[in-house]
């Protein structure tokens, strides 16, 4: 009796990749190619404002006709206070580009930067004891 013969496997050719879609499907966003950051942010000749991710930005007025699209978007979004991190997320721009845009808006006095409210980490012990004693008397 002879042992069974093994057949050699030959590599199968890979199928061709599917063609790219012709356009956006219904409900999909069209693919947006971002602009270069230096065209959005403009010249960075001056210094930057001291901004943090949690610094709140508030607009003073509506966007002027001379504002760039990004500056106009910041002014429209900041009718209520928004943090720099939120603005960066809404506009799909990195923090560094946002700081340049906001610095330009601050120098033209179109927006105001407010520091976030910092709360004390631990309450005063005497206040906590007074509350505790008041609750025990009830």
Number of alpha- plus pi-helical segments: 5
Rg (C-alpha, Å): 29 Å
Helix content: 25-40%
N-C termini distance: 99 Å
Q: What about the largest sheet?
A: 3 strands, antiparallel
Enumerate the spans where pLDDT stays under 50 for 5 or more consecutive residues: none
CATH top level class name of one domain:
Mainly Alpha
- Average pLDDT, to the nearest integer? 79
Structural class: mainly alpha
CATH architecture group name of one domain: Orthogonal Bundle
Shape: flat
State the order of secondary-structure elements, H for helix, E for strand. Answer: HEHEHHEH
Beta-strand share of residues: 5-15%
Walk across the major sheet and give the strand order: 2-1-3
Number of strands: 3
The CATH topology of one domain corresponds to Arc Repressor Mutant, subunit A
Protein name: DUF742 domain-containing protein
Organism: Streptomyces griseochromogenes
């Amino acid at each position: 009796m002879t042992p069974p013969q093994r057949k050699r496997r030959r590599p199968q050719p890979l199928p061709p990749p599917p063609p790219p879609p012709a356009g956006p499907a219904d409900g999909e966003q069209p693919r947006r190619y971002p602009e270069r950051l230096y065209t959005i942010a403009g010249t960075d000749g001056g210094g930057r404002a001291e901004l943090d991710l949690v610094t709140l930005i508030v607009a003073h007025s509506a966007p002027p006709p001379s504002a760039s699209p990004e500056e106009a978007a910041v002014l429209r979004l900041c009718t209520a206070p928004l943090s720099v991190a939120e603005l960066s997320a809404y506009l799909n721009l990195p923090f560094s580009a946002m700081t340049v845009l906001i610095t330009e808006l601050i120098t033209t006095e179109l927006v105001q930067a407010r520091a976030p409210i910092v709360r004390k980490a631990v309450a005063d012990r005497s206040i906590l004891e007074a509350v505790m004693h008041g609750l025990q008397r009830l």
